[in-house]
Amino acid sequence: MDRDAFFRGQFQAVQKAITKDETPLKPKHLETILLGTHTEKSSAIFWSSVKKIKLENHPVLTWKFCLLVHKLLRDGHPVVPKEAYRNEKRFTQLALHWKDKRDYGPCIDAYCKLLHDRVIFHHKRPYFPGNLFVSPLQLDTMGRDLSRMLRLTGDMMHQMDSLLAFQEKVYLLSNSSPRWDPNTPQGQCLMLPLISVIMDTWPFFIYIVRMMYNLHSNVSPHELEGYRSRFQTIFEKTKQFYEECSKHQYFRCFVQIPTFPLHAPNFFTQSDLESYQTYLIGESKKLTETVTPAEEARTRIEHYENRLKEMHGEFQHVRREADENREEVQRLRYELALRDASRTQNQAAIYDTPPDEFSIKF
């Protein structure tokens, strides 16, 4: 493929991916853009293409832009987080523009803040890859110094706060109306980013648990009271988030949601570390090994899209029947109104007739 055709294909993929249509992002467009970053070893074409789209014109444009950036950070070329940092002000601009708007507004505000925080995190800690997966040895090396361990734990908790705040906004909107049901195109467009949130929250949670155990073996419990309180909130919200996601078949088309522990770890008992970590790592393997392959994902998505078309056809049929019934009701109301008007006129005519006209002559 020549360079002109490659650039044209990338630009067209971005244009087709970022549309006003309230439908889920097409996997083929996403794959084209992701592969483009690996081919070019850069996301420059993506950012150049996005600059030609006025994202402030429609909330769904911004929503799909955020989703694409999130996917690129996770699965694009390793240089993507660094290049995204150069555009971090764009996230702030979009958050300010949409924060007070209805429907998507609060969700976009939370998503842009999440992405802004993420690129800052990668800038501060470039040894974290976009998909966030690091080995226990790498993690221990990062936190070998106590002060660094405290800062890293705090930064990862901040990432969890952003992710959980975002999913709360999405579910708040989703639960506000049947329009956002995950079985509708609009609902899937809204809910699709939560798949990446599942993939992000799990490794962060594992790392925080490990760092908290390490901290409790080196710092007095009293000094870590604030960390424990913050962790407990993260634990409860993440558990609730996974349980909510597990109710929807739509998410299971893409990823197997880890089974969250029933209880938070006891950081005062170091002997619990190994068993707790073993459980978490086992769930991690399920998460990484059961991510739906591209071909299977396409098949499942096609099945969903076909079902949505059927539902749309059923909806159109019901709507036509409703329209016909509405017209019939209006016609009957009109006839009744005419009948009532005629009866009223006849009664008025009777009351206005002089008495002589009622006399019977023999």
TrEMBL record:
GO cellular component, one term: cortical actin cytoskeleton
Gene3D superfamilies membership: 1.25.40.90
Residue runs in coiled coils: 294-335
Keywords on record: Coiled coil
Family annotation (PROSITE patterns): ENTH (PS50942)
Family annotation (InterPro entries): ANTH_dom, ENTH, ENTH_VHS, Sla2_fam
Superkingdom assignment: Eukaryota
Cited SUPFAM superfamilies: ENTH/VHS domain
ENTH domain segment(s): 2-129
GO biological process: actin filament organization; clathrin coat assembly; endocytosis
A Pfam family: ANTH
Protein name as catalogued: ENTH domain-containing protein
Organism: Caenorhabditis elegans
Annotated gene: tag-138
